[in-house]
Amino acid sequence: MSKPEVRYFQSKYNKLSGSSHTEIYGQARKFYNSIISKTHRQPYIRSAFFGSKVFLELFWVHNAQKYRGEQMRRLKYYICAIDLLQHSKIPPSSKPNPNNSKEVYHRFYGLSREGNEFWVQVKEDKRTGSKYMVSIAPPRHKK
């Protein structure tokens, strides 16, 4: 059985540039704050694929649990990930959460403007239909 072909969304944004955690975190947080200013309650974006809201707060909680180098590696793709969720209509790979049967994980794949691969994971609560952006990361290439 062959592996299904992965389709990538081409983002119009470059990944964030900078050499320190402070620089990259500041740029990502500034972009996030612009989203917060448009909402009155929980920050969200509208997804083209789902046709509904995807809440963003869980990503910041999840990312804060990582060590600084890993946070920086993931935050570089924040703007590209938001662009992907807002505009991509390419179906994600989806699988049930092995630890909670009431949740499904959807993984979207994308390319930054300069061609760097990354993925975005969205958690969906089957009972309520709520969706939460959980994680962003570039793939780990095996050498």
How is the topology of this model organized?
Layout (H helix, E strand, L loop, with lengths): L8 E2 L10 H16 L7 E3 L6 E3 L1 H8 L3 H8 L2 H10 L5 E5 L2 E12 L5 E9 L5 E7 L6
Parallel strand pairs: 1-5
Antiparallel strand pairs: 2-3, 4-5, 5-6, 6-7
Helix pairs in contact: 1-3
Task: Describe what this molecule looks like in 3D.
This protein is an alpha+beta fold. It has a domain of 86 residues. Helices cover 29% and strands 29% of the residues. It contains four helices and seven strands; from the N terminus they run E-H-E-E-H-H-H-E-E-E-E. Strands 1, 4, 5, 6 and 7 form a five-stranded mixed beta sheet that branches. The longest helix is centred in the first third of the chain and has 16 residues.
Rg calculated over all Cα atoms? 15 Å
Mean pLDDT: 92
Number of contiguous helices? 4
> What does the largest sheet look like?
5 strands, mixed
Strand segment count: 7
Unreliably modeled segments: none
Overall 3D shape: globular
Roughly what percent helix?
25-40%
Beta-strand percent range: 25-35%
Q: Give, in order, the helices and strands.
A: EHEEHHHEEEE
Distance between the termini: 25 Å
The computed structural class is alpha+beta
